[in-house]
Design goal:
Strand order of the largest sheet: 3-2-1-4-6-5-7
Structural class: alpha/beta
Number of helices: 9
Shape: globular
Number of strands: 9
Number of domains: 1
CATH class: Alpha Beta
CATH architecture: Alpha-Beta Complex
Distance between the termini: 36 Å
Length: 260
Amino acid sequence: MRKHKVIAVMPAFNAELTLEKTFRSIPSGSVDEVILTDDFSSDRTVEIAESLGINVFRHKRNIGYGANQKTCYDAALNKGADIVVMIHPDYQYDSRLIPYALGFLKNNICDIILGSRIRSRREALEGGMPRYKYISNRILTTVENMVLGQNLGDFHSGFRVYKRRVLETIPYKKNSDDFVFDTEFLTQAIFWGFKIGDVPIPCRYFKAASSINFIRSSKYGFQTLLVMGKYMLQKLRLAKFKIFYKRGDVYEQGKSREIL
């Protein structure tokens, strides 16, 4: 009998060319179930997922990467997951690392594990990471480590493993529906004292793999720096922000009250 129920979730958008490869690369027996949430793809993503026996949740319209993750985590929690593995269905991240990442959570060493694409500069660039992405990743990750008091290799990985209590604590539904959702989530986890670690993960860059363009990357970088600013102001008690309240807390602003 498996002690922990492990569910892999895939936030998908137009992943027909890579979904099956990603699914079949997951080591046999490492997860109990795979869930795919489709953000209103215009290709055969849903059809292929269903043919593979993947449990599919589909949005009625395109609502964003962050919103797609919210659907993923809601579905996994509702199905009783003890550990949730989030991996993009674009075959960019090496799913063979799943059993190793799980070990850190099962043995209570970490609450969250990230897959670090940047073990070394040479490996990252030879693996196909665009140079501007590498440079921006290094700058943002350095700033985030300094502000958040961490020593992580890659804050912006699309391979993440979470304990259930992390998802039950963080009011992620109040986070952005855009790409900065990931930054908000990790910053919240650090604010509430969860232990985060990372493992090196081989990464593939190719035409069919999902990637945001330079303009979207620039916007994401700016939004990430804003989150760091909010974190510092919250820690210094100079301001209060909704994202740093636990799920179920009452957030008050002026005359308005909201239960998170």
